[in-house]
Specification:
The chain is an alpha/beta fold. It has 4 domains: 267 residues, no CATH class; 115 residues, no CATH class; 222 residues, P-loop containing nucleotide triphosphate hydrolases (Rossmann fold, 3-Layer(aba) Sandwich), CATH 3.40.50; 166 residues, P-loop containing nucleotide triphosphate hydrolases (Rossmann fold), CATH 3.40.50. The chain is built from 35 helices and 28 strands. Strand 27 and strand 28 form a beta hairpin. The longest helix has 22 residues. The chain is globular and about 90 Å long. The N terminus is likely disordered. Keywords: Antiviral defense, ATP-binding, Helicase, Hydrolase, Metal-binding, Nuclease, Nucleotide-binding. This is CRISPR-associated helicase Cas3. In the N-terminal section; belongs to the CRISPR-associated nuclease Cas3-HD family. GO terms for molecular function: ATP binding; hydrolase activity; metal ion binding; nuclease activity; nucleic acid binding; RNA helicase activity.
């Protein structure tokens, strides 16, 4: 077999070697503290040769390649009768899909695709056009020559770079953990905040550190197998076990367990769970499964890089004497003549013993803290070297002096007020907003529409950072549109290096967000490195994001897991909590109950059962009614009436005929919105049709048209919309016509009528017409419970209804019982962890994401462009398409996108259920 060419040293190698030599001269105490290094005496052959980390790094720099010895010396030996060794395809080797450590074979974990209503799961970060990865089973005949592994790798070579050895990567991860969290005798600010965030006592720091150090050292031991090494070296190959599962089997083996138990201060069950789950693909049934094929894998535990370097490194850092007794057989597998060590009994013993005991432990906080810290350290230890960055880059992202103090927050507030003043939209702070600065660190703020809640939230932030500065300010919203508006109105006034918009199409939304004359147009908000995946957001200080981006860790989303170091040292505002579905609200409740961080939840109205749940989770209810806010809440705004569906259109035509009324017609289904817009084309005013089933390019245009047409001061206009109007649309209609919907949704829709105080003063109350559609396909009778009583209550009032009346009606007729919270995977899975990002929301997959067939080529060109601005345009081609229409797969597209029939699409009305041209 021909030896691989020698690779050039990676950038920064000389600096790393020098740093290693400096460390070796200083020495470190076990566990990461500075001091004398135990040489790992007796820790297996060659243990005495390891004097600190530098020797391991020198060995790690040997050039990967094949041993040129004759192939016949390294043939796979089959079982009786010359049977071959079955080798499974790669299923590990890096961080979970979408993360910095993603490697060949680890893709496909994330739920794919954009929610078709624009409010759901984002596509996998960095997903590109191309064929999806196809698993296959490879059979090696007995005569198949295996390449001899001269060097154990942990990471394959990135373009223009070099591979990372197993020892080198292990040291990278250990250093990343130390840079993030600190040493045994000295924690970083983030380390202290991390312990507080997970509600551990600060006295548990040393225990946490020891557990994390052990997890970092052992996390990739399982990569020492032929299949994994073949994959990393770019040869055809595969694995029988995921590498982290093999790490667990090794760590749980009696010979290794006896060795590590010298450190009684380390909770080895916690380490076992963290190691097995650090790629979020570790479940009770998915743990090293036997597929019944008799497959086997060649393990490389006798390799010098493993027994001499990796074992000795572990012994030195953990101060372990002697050597672990690792099973001698060269092959591991399940049954059959080709297997020399069958791990079935070991696996079952761990599953029924230590892992079950860990899962049933009443207190999971240490496990959760160590597992999350290992994932973050592994992501950094993988992503930073791959992109040519040094590990000490981390220190600049998590400084000891907090980055968000009173001066930082005041700068954002002052620039926002200056903007409002320039547009004659600012008078002064109202009493309600002033009071919000003194709210508690964990509060639920209920205030009517038009009260200025967002500026009030910034006053709350100012009060929080005055008491205790933090490193981040996070605004979390339920939808991309609301997050984008929050960024545009407030966050974008922060310095460009600090501000971030985070959701699935953020790059697209940032492109051209501001007019040329706007001072923010010159800011480069998108100057991040996408190769870092979630880590590219670590430098940001003030963020507007969808709630999934951060709270998705509750469902083991990998990207959100990598953002936990950001979340742990933040103040957080969660807006529009009324719109959270059961899964999202359960995640919010679980987060509030389990983690210690300042949080303000906001909305205009919220059913009393949910208010009580949030209070039980630790929030203090604030429903302030100073005189100015009471005036807003008590102002008569709505004349409410029931109408018949047949008379609705006539009422609208009459309103438009007057030439003075802005009309908003809200229906519950896209198809009905399209049909209505088509019927109204004979009006003197062309109706705007706005819903979720547009190409993103066209949806942005329809959104802008709707906001411009249905706002205070504008002349007559008609917009036909769906539920998308309930949030993020700053509009003000004279006449609201709406189909029957849940009470909370109706209140949100009514908030788009007579929104401004000036309009109420000059024109009087707005008109709200409610009717029941002939066929209701969206909401169940349970969803609509209490609606008739609520409408009758509003109609029966002696004067037009106010926002205070809406609150009274909601309390009286709204939901009486709270939904039982759903289990949160992060808090309930025990030793195991399996990613399931799609479970963060209650998603019914009626639609799929697609590209019009005629535009597939243009999409692929944009998606694969090396220019970041061009790549950012790719989401503009994506359109939600009903699954029932059966769009087809196109080999040029990634697996989560389909090709859709152009004949169904119109830029003005969106994608129809049938061909329209």
């Amino acid at each position: 077999m021909v030896a691989a060419p020698r690779a050039a040293p990676g950038r920064g190698d000389s600096e790393r070697v020098a740093a290693g030599q400096s460390r070796a001269r200083r020495g470190r105490r076990p566990g990461g503290a500075r001091g004398a290094v135990g040489g790992g005496a007796g820790a297996g052959p060659g243990a005495g040769e390891l004097a600190g980390d530098v020797q391991a790094r020198r060995r790690a720099r040997r050039v990967p390649g094949h041993d040129p010895r004759p192939a016949d010396r390294t043939r796979c030996r089959g079982g009786a009768g010359g049977a071959g060794v079955r080798v499974r395809p790669a299923c590990g080797g890096g961080a979970a899909a979408g993360g910095p450590g993603e490697r060949r074979g680890d893709r496909g974990v994330r739920a794919a695709g954009v929610r078709a209503d624009g409010r759901g799961v984002d596509p996998p970060s960095g997903a590109r056009a191309g064929r999806p990865h196809q698993d296959r089973l490879r059979v090696l005949p007995a005569s198949h020559p295996e390449g001899v592994v001269t060097q154990l790798l942990a990471k394959s070579a990135p373009p223009g770079g070099r591979a990372r050895t197993l020892v080198e990567h292990t040291l990278d991860v250990v250093e990343a953990a130390e840079a993030l969290f600190g040493f045994a005798d000295r924690s970083t600010r983030l380390g202290r905040e991390w312990v507080r965030f997970f509600r551990l006592d600060q006295t548990q720091w040393s225990r946490f550190h020891a557990n994390l150090l052990a997890a970092c050292l052992f996390h990739d031991w399982g990569k020492a197998n032929q299949g994994m090494q073949d994959v990393l070296a770019g040869r055809s190959g595969g694995q029988l076990f995921r590498h982290e599962h093999l790490s667990v089997l090794l760590l749980g083996h009696d010979g290794v367990e006896r060795w590590v138990c010298q450190r009684s201060d380390i909770d080895w069950d916690v380490v076992l769970g963290a190691v097995g789950s650090h790629h979020l693909k570790f479940g009770d049934q998915s743990f090293a499964p036997d597929d019944g094929t008799g497959a086997a894998v060649r393990v490389l535990f006798d390799h010098d890089d493993f027994r001499r370097d990796l074992v000795s490194l572990t012994a030195a850092r953990l101060q372990l004497s002697g050597a672990p007794a690792i099973p001698a057989p060269r092959y591991w597998g399940f049954g059959g003549g080709t297997t020399t060590f069958d791990p079935t009994e070991l696996r079952e013993g761990l599953r029924d013993g230590r892992l079950r005991r860990l899962s049933r432990a009443p207190d999971q906080r240490m496990l959760n803290a160590v597992r999350a810290a290992l994932i973050a350290a592994d992501a950094a230890g993988s992503g930073l070297p791959r992109t040519g960055r040094r590990i000490d880059w981390i220190g600049g992202q998590f400084p000891e002096t907090p980055g968000c103090d009173s001066v930082t927050v005041a700068g954002v507030i002052d620039r926002r007020i200056a903007d409002l003043t320039s547009r004659n939209k600012w008078v002064h702070w109202n009493e309600f907003q002033n009071q919000c600065e003194t709210l508690s660190a964990r509060a639920l703020l209920l205030a009517p529409c038009g009260a200025g809640k967002t500026l009030a939230a910034w006053r709350w932030i100012a009060g929080r950072v005055k008491q205790r500065p933090v490193n981040r300010v996070l605004f979390l919203y339920p939808t991309r549109a609301t997050a984008t508006e929050g960024f545009k109105d407030y966050v974008s006034w922060a310095p460009e290096a600090d501000a971030a918009l985070m959701h699935g199409t953020a790059g697209y939304d940032l492109n051209g967000m501001f007019a040329v004359e706007d001072p923010r147009a010159k800011k480069a908000f998108t100057t991040t490195d996408p190769r870092l995946f979630a880590l590219q957001h670590w430098p940001k200080r003030i963020v507007s994001a969808t709630v999934d981006q951060f709270f998705g860790f509750m469902a083991y989303g990998y990207g959100p897991m990598c953002l936990l170091p950001v979340l742990a040292d933040s103040v957080i505002v969660v807006d529009e909590v009324h719109s959270f579905d059961r899964s999202m609200f359960s995640a919010l409740l679980g987060f509030l109950s389990a983690f210690d961080v300042p949080v303000l939840c906001m909305t205009a109205t919220l059913p009393e059962p949910r208010q009580k749940q949030l209070v039980a989770a630790g929030l203090t209810l604030s429903n302030p009614r100073p005189d100015d806010l009471k005036t807003i809440a008590d102002t008569p705004r709505y004349r409410v009436a029931r109408v018949n569906e047949r008379e609705v259109e006539d009422r609208i035509r009459a309103a438009v005929g007057s030439g003075k009324r802005r009309v908003l017609w809200v229906v519950n289904q896209v198809s009905r919105a399209q049909a209505i817009a088509a019927r109204l084309t004979d009006l003197s005013l062309s109706p705007i049709c706005y819903h979720s089933r547009f190409k993103l390019d066209d949806r942005v245009k329809r959104h802008q048209e709707t906001v411009k047409a249905i706002r205070a001061g504008e002349p007559a206009a008609v917009a036909v919309t769906t539920q998308v109007c309930e949030m993020s649309l700053d509009i003000d209609a004279d006449l609201l016509v709406t189909e029957a919907c849940p009470i909370t949704s109706l209140i949100q829709r009514m908030g788009r009528c007579r929104r401004g105080r000036d309009e109420v003063t000059s024109k009087g109350p707005g008109e709200v017409l409610i009717y029941a559609p002939a066929k209701e396909r969206v909401y169940s009778s349970d969803d609509l419970a209490g609606l008739d009583g609520f409408i009758s209550f509003l109609i029966g009032l002696p004067s037009p209804a106010s926002q205070a009346d809406l609150e009274i009606g909601l309390d009286r007729f709204g939901p009486k019982g709270a939904d039982a919270p759903k289990l949160n995977s992060f808090l309930a899975s025990g030793a195991y962890a399996e990613a399931s990002e799609d479970s963060f929301r209650d998603i019914e997959a009626f639609n799929v994401s697609a590209v019009l067939a005629s535009e597939v080529g243009a999409y692929v060109t944009a998606a694969e462009s090396k220019d970041c601005m061009t790549r950012a345009k790719a989401p503009g081609f994506v359109v939600p398409v009903p699954r029932k229409l059966r769009p087809v797969q196109d080999p040029r597209l990634p697996h989560y996108l389909f090709a859709a029939d152009d004949r169904h699409y119109d830029p003005q009305t969106g994608y129809w259920d049938y061909p329209i041209c």
